[in-house]
Specification:
Elements (H helix, E strand, L loop, with lengths): L8 E6 L3 H15 L4 E6 L2 H10 L6 E4 L12 H10 L8 E5 L4 H8 L2 E4 H6 L2 H12 L1
Parallel strand pairs: 1-2, 1-3, 3-4, 4-5
Helix pairs in contact: 2-3
Length: 138
C-alpha cells in the first residue's frame, strides 16, 4: 500500500471572501504541514475553473464556496464550478463544498459531492480534517 502521508497534495480553495480563503488554507496547512501541500486559491468560480483547465496536473481536492459571483442561468457560482469540474473528471479527484448557504446539502447531494456547513466548521475545525482525510488519504 502506498504511503500517502508523504504524498504531495494539490488543493484548490475557492471563495470570494479573502478571510475564508485564509481560514481554510491555514487549517489545512496546520493539519498536513507545509511540505506536503500545494495550495492554490481563487476568488471566483470562473477564475477557479480557469486555473483547473490551465493546470497540467490534476488537483487532489477542490474546496469551494457556493455563493460567489453572479453567473447567468445559475443559482450559485459554486454549483456552476462543481458541474463543470464533474464534466472533466481527469482534472479534479475530489470536491468539497463549504458554504453558509441554507441549501448546501441539496446542492451537494445533487452533484454527489461532500459538504461542510460553514457554521459547523467554525464551531468544530476538526470537521475539515476528518473530511479531507477521508477524501485525500483513505
Amino acid at each position: 500500500m502506498e504511503n500517502n502521508q508523504s504524498k504531495n497534495y494539490r488543493i484548490l480553495i475557492v471563495d470570494d471572501i479573502c478571510d475564508w480563503l485564509n481560514y481554510h488554507a491555514g487549517l489545512i496547512k496546520t493539519f498536513y504541514g507545509f511540505d506536503t501541500l500545494e495550495i492554490v486559491c481563487a476568488s471566483s468560480g470562473k477564475s477557479a475553473f480557469e486555473k483547473i483547465m490551465a493546470s497540467d496536473q490534476p488537483f487532489d481536492l477542490v474546496i469551494t464556496d457556493l455563493e460567489m459571483e453572479s453567473i447567468p442561468n445559475e443559482n450559485y457560482a459554486g454549483a456552476w464550478l462543481v458541474k463543470n469540474i464533474k464534466a472533466r473528471k481527469e482534472k479534479v479527484k475530489n470536491i468539497l463544498i463549504i458554504s453558509g448557504s441554507y441549501d448546501i446539502k441539496e446542492v451537494a447531494d445533487s452533484f454527489d459531492v461532500d459538504f461542510i456547513p460553514k457554521d459547523l466548521l467554525i464551531s468544530n475545525q476538526l470537521l475539515l480534517k476528518y473530511k479531507t482525510d477521508e477524501l485525500l488519504i483513505n
